[in-house]
User: Fold this.
Amino acid sequence: MNAKVIDKKITGFSIKKPEPEKEPDIERMHEKFERPETLEGSTYKIKTPLSDHALYITINDVVLNPGTDHEVRRPFEVFINSKNLEHFQWVVALTRVISAVFRKGGDVTFLVEELKAVFDPQGGYFKSGGRFMPSLVAEIGDAIETHMKRIGLIEEEALSEAQKEVLHEKQIEYEQKHRIEHTSEEFPPTATLCLKCHTKAVIVMDGCKTCLNCGASKCG
Assistant:
């Protein structure tokens, strides 16, 4: 490197600082986001005792900031199809509202709790495995929750292996104490409904109500 000769009087100086790196433009969901030509999605089948025909819920996602550290997958639209036209009007209205909320951006996980909190005045129904659904709308919310967990938008609240082992031991102790023969059912037939996970899995042990499915417990 050649030295530069200064042949004039220095009257002032400054230290040149490196320019800060420009933050990458992070793309986020918003209501003006243009729909891509192709979207990836999943379809969930809902079969209820309320109808002879199943409902098929399709949720399409958009991938934001692909190939970067900020890559995320977000729900973009939802469609519900069925041969049963009895609920056609409100189903179409519901899917349009949900899709509009998805496209608005921000935290859309609140939709799950809002939908799952809808109760049918004529009563809900039990799914296979003893899980209670308070309404068809609630089961649609349950399907959306399942999808959001799959794409990482909602964290899975899974029990640890140690917790599962403790609950299994409680179930065996309960069945032996009450002389209940173990059947093909996952939980004892005398179990009651859990208000947290909506599963017939609550037993009373040592004065405490304990859910064998999610582990919720209440004493009193």
